[in-house]
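Slide 14.
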Amino acid sequence: MRAQWTSRTYQLALVVVASAAFVSCSAAENGDAAAPAAAAAPQAMGGQDEFGPYEVVENWPQPLPDGQDGVKHDGWTWGSNGAIWAETPDRVWIAQRGELPLPQGAKPWTPYGMLNPSRGNSTGNGDGLSATCEPVAKRGWERRWHHTLFVVNRDGAIVQEWPHLDKMFAQDRCGRGPHKIKMNPYDAEKHVWIIDDQQHVIWKFTSDGKVVLTLGTLGQRGRDAGKLFDRPTDIDWLPDGTFFISDGYGGTRVAKFDRDGKFLMDWGGPPKDPNNPGPNEFNTVHSLAISKDRRLFVVDRTHRRFQVFDENGTFLDMFSTGQYSSPYYHFISTDQNLWVADGGTSRILKYDLNGNYLDGWGGRGGQPGLFNGPHQMSTDQDGNLYVAEVFNGRLQKFRPKPNSDPARIVGQEARFTAGTN
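Slide 15: predicted structure.
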């Protein structure tokens, strides 16, 4: 670790404390709230930089049509949305954890985060089950497995769907639906990868929905080469197709596989002292991304930090994201910046690859443009930003404001382009 580790951790904690104070202010206090700590262009008098360099795209996505199976949407709305990935501006992949019933009298397609009176957070859990499949008090309403995976265009209209996946995600009563959806940026065939944390499996699909690889054993959790996972969460690739899995909520490791899915190695474990976790010790390995120089940046979510490794699991560095942080998702843009969807502060954050905080915006709430549970984000080639929220039960699209500072626009994701990979 570098000598400035303690100093930088303290500085980052101050930034996040300021952010948390900002989002907790009441409406009456907002006029006196301190400005966000991130470097930003000057705001108009009395303004606040809630949405950063973006504006919210209204009515996106559009209400879903009734199902090909004849299932109607009257009285139903979006479910807990854990996964979104923009292949192009006109092909945005969405994987949600079933659909949720609306209370009587609610406006059609109201996200759960905007219901009044509230029904609490949107959920992918079955009625009477916790997120880890333990019995809990029943809430009195149930989700349904419908429109688990679909694709929309720039206007938010559905252009493709895989209804056969509904039964796949419902195989185990403990399943709560997709956790992440991604494409390998070095894969000309553009296979679709979906991680199901609660069923403990990773699936690889062709672009028309056929399964070509399954890792893990449905409904069984553990740590046994590539045969068992314990609530896996994310995936990323090297240019030769080698890939890594973060495993996960129950697991405390990163697992490495060759391009054909053969297990190669893993590393990591639980902390020997939970009050003083050290390098290579994890609690909720929730997201990972690989830089151009082949370093793995791994989110150690409950410890509120990133750990950095080489491709063979050698520990290189780590940095804190602050005591109010809970990093849910991150990716490394093509210009080699680290972008984070932070569930603890409900903000979008920017770091350099040395762990230095550069920028941030956002806040917690159900109103359009705010977040609750920003679980995966993605950008398209036009610079639009997409965010899937697990707790608000919502998908949001943001377009850059005119004349926005380019340094504040969330960077491009690596994706396959013919002739460049």
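Speaker note: The chain has one domain: 5-27+47-408.
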